[in-house]
Structure prediction request, 292 residues.
Amino acid sequence: MPHVVLVTGASSGFGALTARALADAGHTVHAGIRQTTGRNAPAVADARSYADEHGVDLRTVELDVSSQESVDAAVAEVGRIDVVVHNAGHMVLGPTEAFTPEQVAEIYDTNVLSTQRVNRAVLPAMRARRDGLLLWVGSSSTYGGTPPYLGPYFGAKAAMDHLAKSYAVELSRFGIDTAIVVPGSFTSGTNHFAHAMHPQDTATAEAYDTFYAGLMDDVGKALAALAPADADVRDVADAIVRIVDTPKGERPFRTTIDPADDGSERVSDVADSIRAEFYRRIGMTDLLTPRT
Prediction:
């Protein structure tokens, strides 16, 4: 059954790939992109060309997830929304100490608070219809390996994961479904590292070079070596399509796509089973699945 889908952070990377894959699957997709008439105008043109060439319903909408006004305007423009893909995110590179508190707050704003803005805009209508899907794009770092110099990003992604778990049970009786997709480290096919935030406190960052010179290059090479040669970032988009196409009540709560196998899936399986057991112990197992 076709759905109307809003994808945040859809100018490039996972977001752009997901928007196209969902449109190819027959859904009406609104790719949320900020600065559509400015620096991201080429992304808007690319989406329009893709829609024309493939005969799919892929649209773009001005959406800056850091602004409630922009979020509200985008949701109003789209109208009915069946599925939200919380994809917007921002990477960092550098020693954690060298990021100012304001920079860390900005990373949390993009990766965590943005989801709250979007949810507050779309959930009233979903609750009224007793239907909908929130699909959260997380990170294997929440439960798996955490290489250095990515600390603020990892912290924000873990916070988003816990927010998603709380929303899942609080929305289940409204018939609203939740799914978490967990990509591992893909060293090609996205712009995460190219667009990453770097520390403003350059003096502190330089102090770390005394003992950690070349660390990020070494981490990048190590991650690339862990991934198989056929690792394809489009696997994340394909997984999202499968989840959206699965009927409510049958969707997996968490899906991990981790070519480097950093241990995330094994740990999250245990964590999610403990969560389910806890709800059994308190006699609220109905909260684990959306009401149909």
